[in-house]
Amino acid sequence: MRISKGEIFERVFVNEEVNLQIDQEAGSHVKIHVINASFSITVNQLGEGCQTEIYGLENLHGDEQVTAETHVTHAVGGGTSNQLIKFVLADNSRGRFIGDLKIAQDAQQTEAHQTNRNLLLSETAVMRTQPQLEIYADDVKATHGASTGQLDESALFYMQQRGIDKQKARQLLVNAFMKEVVETISDEKIKAKILTFFEEETF
Question: Can you state the angle between helices 166-182 and 153-161, rounded to 10 degrees?
Fold first, then answer.
């Protein structure tokens, strides 16, 4: 798929497996959200001043297994990219993130960020994360980070001390963790539906 010069391409995929390969021309903007599905997204910035945003949110239960895979290449300069991928894993679920970010030698003045954060709600859930950053230009701003942890017990205790039962406190903390991704959706109706769905789940 080619996104023409100056074009905006924005999509939200919910419970739908996604496999996309996108070439961006100068000044184009790609913004993709994938909620609760495996995905593989490849984006090549082939023109100057491109913007790329990739957001993933996976809420896994039981024996579910999901792989989130991103490949973003800045072939020319002046572009930006932001990736935020989050997993919430309960029961015996399995998650995997593969993130490949490349900045070519000619892609000066590029700004690129890749973040993967994961929340484990059980001792038997497993998360594997494989971020990779390749930078061949020297005038760039680029970061990547990955973290996996459990709910903050001190925050749970604090909320319980203020009259919130443990189950509700867990729900509030998990919802806050997921909300960072959902809030980046531009379409207010879709955003509201997804927020409502997660708020009604039990963690």
Answer: 120
The pair of structure tokens assigned to 5 is: 């010069």
Q: Specify whether the CB–CB gap between 198 and 190 falls below 8 A.
A: no
Query: What is the DSSP secondary structure assignment for residue 46, as one 8-state letter?
Result: -
Alpha carbon distance 96, 83 (integer Å): 15
Distances (CA, A) of 149 to 53, 81, 104, 146: 25, 25, 33, 10
pLDDT of 52-107, one tens digit each? 999 999 999 999 999 999 999 999 999 999 999 999 999 999 999 999 999 999 99
Q: Residue 21's closest CA among 69, 86, 77, 78?
A: 69
Check: pTM over 0.85? Answer yes or no.
yes
